[in-house]
């Protein structure tokens, strides 16, 4: 559930930003140096760039929140290179998403704990009923022997 939502979010955001970049490039293509055809993966990036990204994610409190940070990395690197003034928008958006994911995880954990507690209570109740029924059967057998 979280993974598909994260994937949909990053894909949609990337497509939107890239479409905005294409529109802006058409208007300002003579003023801008084009970006490299392929962006390096986070592992392939130089130490300084990787450190900037990791600081960015840490600042958001998003460390270990997203299962796959590669899409966020690609978007971040592309914005940093082509549209650095949009990094604030990305940061604000990711901060909101991070908060929502953390809240959803907390709610999930709370629901799981409640479910485990209710299962334990149910099992205890079933065990009690079983023991009462066993006692009643033993009482009936004892009564039959006496008769």
Helix content: over 70%
How far is the N terminus from the C terminus?
A: 64 Å
Low-confidence stretches: 26-38
Overall average pLDDT: 81
Radius of gyration: 29 Å
Model description:
The protein has 4 helices and no strands. With about 150 residues, it is an all-alpha fold. Helix 1 packs parallel to helix 3. The protein is rod-shaped.
Write the layout of secondary structure elements.
Layout: H1 2-28, H2 47-60, H3 70-82, H4 87-146
Helix pairs in contact: 1-3
What descriptors fit this protein?
147 residues; mainly alpha; 4 helices; 78% helix; rod-shaped
Short description:
With 147 residues, the protein is mainly α. It is built from four helices and no strands. The longest helix has 60 residues, at 87-146.
